[in-house]
Amino acid sequence: MATAERYAFKPYNVGRWIIWSGYALILLIAPLLFTSSLSLTMLIQMGIAIIACLSFNMLLGQGGMLSFGHAVYSGLGSFFAIHALNWVSAGTLPLPVSLVPMVGGLAGLVFAILLGYVTTKKAGTPFAMITLGVGELVAAMALMFPGFFGGEGGISGNRVAGQPFFGITFGPQTQLYYLIAIYTFACTAAMYAMTRTPLGRMLNAVRDNPERVEFVGYSTQRVRYIAFIASGFFMGISGGLSALNFEIVTAEVVGAQRSGAFLLFTFLGGAVFFFGPIIGAVLMVLALVLLSELTLAWLLYLGLAFMVMVMFAPGGISSLIMMNLRLAAFGKLKDLWTSYLALFGTAFAILAGAGAMVEMLYHLQLNAALGPKLRFMGVQLDATSAESWILAGMVLVTGLVLFEITRRAFNRDWGQTQEEIEREIKRREALS
Amino acid sequence: VDASYFLISLLNGLSAGLLLFMLASGLTLIFSMMGVLNFAHASFYMLGAYAAYTTMRITGNFWVALFLAPLLVGLAGAAFERFALRRVHKFGHVPELLITFGLSYILFELVQLVWGRASMDFQPPASLQGPLFTIVELPASLSLAWGSPPAVCQAAAGAVCTTFPVFRAFGMGIAIVMLVAIWLLLTRTRVGMVIQAALTHPDTVEALGHNVPRVFMLVFGGGTALAALAGVIGGALRVTEPSMALTMGAVVFAVIVIGGMGSLAGAFIASVLLGVIESFAVGSDRSLGDLLAWLGAHITPQTFGYAVWSVKISQVAAILPYLFLVLILIFRPKGLLGKRED
């Protein structure tokens, strides 16, 4: 049945060609659609984040390895790339600027070979703790050796270096964007190709049933090690690109916060599907640039969204998309859209109520000097009056009650629809 | 190294190590029971310090805070287990770890939301302040005086006096009482037996009519209460601020890997060892280069890798736990007293 669904004209897999051409097209025309300087900056960061999240997911999604210190590899990649860039500027290193990110990639590779040997000795929870420890180690060392890491001030560089190539100096942001777009596309393709190799398949097997892999005769440790090295390489490339972009690298790029962000957003995007981290990376840049401007409490919202996601949709946003695509493919989406509307409406009420309370608290705590008044979602609130608090509380409680009611109804409908789809699949199988 | 310095460093190290163990014990209990690595453990430690600070503000009594803060935080921990952790239990260990990771973010933000970003003025009560004893080192003799420094310290120029605070000793006492209490609870009581049995054979225990999920909730609540107790001591001893969870968290993880995952005795040895070594390392201004010079090598600023050779041991003190972690993993992957190697 699966083969009948796919439009496979040998030797071409048309669906895959369409998707990858579409991806390339989006990368190509995105700066033409979003022309402002801010959006170009964000697009550049998205490209970098896509590489980082995808290579993080090589471990988390494909290998079942949860790393709490993966910023080490992108960060060290950044440092080596910025030093290489400075050598290019000084004329001591004959390398085109467009290949500087590869220096970062090699640095990531070498450090993944070194540190990965220790970390991949274990799997599961111990692996996570060891990566955390190694991450702390490198982060502390970054402050210990100011000669290489530049101490508090970091290392800065200038990407307009060496000979221009056909007039490309990488001075204008657009030129940098297309360089990063090329890297992003190539890295995405390479990482996808890797999931199709025997190694990629073994990695999935190591994630799902390590014991059986050992019985078949593979060393799970070696498979994890190789995957870790590959992931370190791509992390390093993304680090090198961000060194080119910001032209300054500070010690915080190897820190625990950066590692946490990779984990958080890769998971939010969805670790189950290959394209999940791409969504996560886009969200990451949006959150770091826009959400942090919008509210002081953005980390709190992010943590809450993450927890809700872990509890109710462990496959992330990409799995939600795929589940609804399945519904749409079987023509069931029209039965559920009213419940979706109700769910979103009540969830919005909860968000509004809780958000108002959180914003008022933050306002009292941090902006007390500005007076008690603040605007939230277009409503004037007074953080010191009981009225505002009662109002927000009522919105929250009403939202919670209604949400619970709709959630139960939705759960019932959802189960029913899934059963219908299962029956439909069985029926089709019987026909073919 | 003079004797008084050695003694006081040893005592400080022991005190730091015992504090570390208070945290590590709860983490180890939760891990060995439920297989869950509680990433937010240090956040509960921080929550304990803040809860104690507020209780002390309201009641004005440290002893009430010492009792109430662990209780409240333990209840919060149990509620988290009941309503969030239990839900993801069926998805496996990685989502369990992830949800506690998310919780650490939320607690970090919530603490800043409620108490603000500055550090709190959380002091031990007057009855527990001041020095417990003073080590007086005269050129000829070494003696110990209870209470505040004796008159000889002000007068004689040759005397080296070092004091040891009461509260530090109190914290050590609490940790030891707690250690004994856990040991008695686990080995001598009926609840402890059920907990130990549920550790290895949850299905059998459940078949015998015990409510295993409730046991899990108890263990998680108990573990977080221990973290909060450590927080009350640690908050008053050091600083109560939002970053206290971060500084403590990673070290505790290193401790339980070094000690051997799930081994309480291993966690004890590792935390005391790390505490003592760190305490001595902080006071030392030697470097790797000095060692090489002592061995006969000639080290100058022109030597290759001078940045590495010239780093002082006191600078390395903060990263020693992680260095040990890496070394242990290379030479003894199951940890000091670990049983399994997985």
Model description:
The complex is a heterodimer of chains A (432) and B (342). Chain A has 432 residues and is mostly helical. Chain A has helices at 2-5, 14-33, 37-63, 71-90, 100-119, 124-144, 146-149, 173-196, 198-208, 210-216, 220-246, 256-269, 276-294, 298-312, 316-329, 333-366, 386-431, and strands at residues 8-9, 12-13, 155-156, 248-249, 373-376, 379-382. Chain A is built from 17 helices and 6 strands. In chain A, the strands form 3 sheets. In chain A, strands 1-2 form a two-stranded antiparallel sheet. In chain A, strands 3-4 form a two-stranded antiparallel ribbon. In chain A, a hairpin with a 2-residue loop joins strand 5 and strand 6 (379-382). In chain A, helix 3 (37-63) packs across helix 13, helix 9 packs across helix 11 and helix 16 runs antiparallel to helix 17 (386-431). With 342 residues, chain B is mainly alpha-helical. Chain B has helices at residues 3-34, 41-59, 62-88, 93-115, 151-155, 166-188, 190-200, 202-207, 212-237, 244-259, 264-282, 288-294, 306-309, 313-316, 320-331, and strands at residues 131-137, 142-146, 160-165. The longest helix of chain B is centred in the first third of the chain and has 32 residues, at 3-34. The radius of gyration of chain B is 22 Å and the shape is globular. The mean pLDDT of chain B is 83. At the A-B interface, helix 6, helix 12, helix 14 and helix 16 of A face helix 3, helix 4, helix 10 and helix 15 of B.
Topology of helices and strands:
The complex is a heterodimer of chains A (432) and B (342).
Chain A: H1 2-5, E1 8-9, E2 12-13, H2 14-33, H3 37-63, H4 71-90, H5 100-119, H6 124-144, H7 146-149, E3 155-156, H8 173-196, H9 198-208, H10 210-216, H11 220-246, E4 248-249, H12 256-269, H13 276-294, H14 298-312, H15 316-329, H16 333-366, E5 373-376, E6 379-382, H17 386-431
Helix pairs in contact in A: 2-8, 3-8, 3-11, 3-12, 3-13, 4-5, 4-11, 5-11, 8-11, 9-10, 9-11, 12-13, 13-15, 16-17
Chain B: H1 3-34, H2 41-59, H3 62-88, H4 93-115, E1 131-137, E2 142-146, H5 151-155, E3 160-165, H6 166-188, H7 190-200, H8 202-207, H9 212-237, H10 244-259, H11 264-282, H12 288-294, H13 306-309, H14 313-316, H15 320-331
Antiparallel strand pairs in B: 1-2, 1-3
Helix pairs in contact in B: 1-6, 1-9, 1-10, 1-11, 2-3, 2-4, 2-9, 2-10, 3-9, 6-7, 6-9, 10-11, 10-15
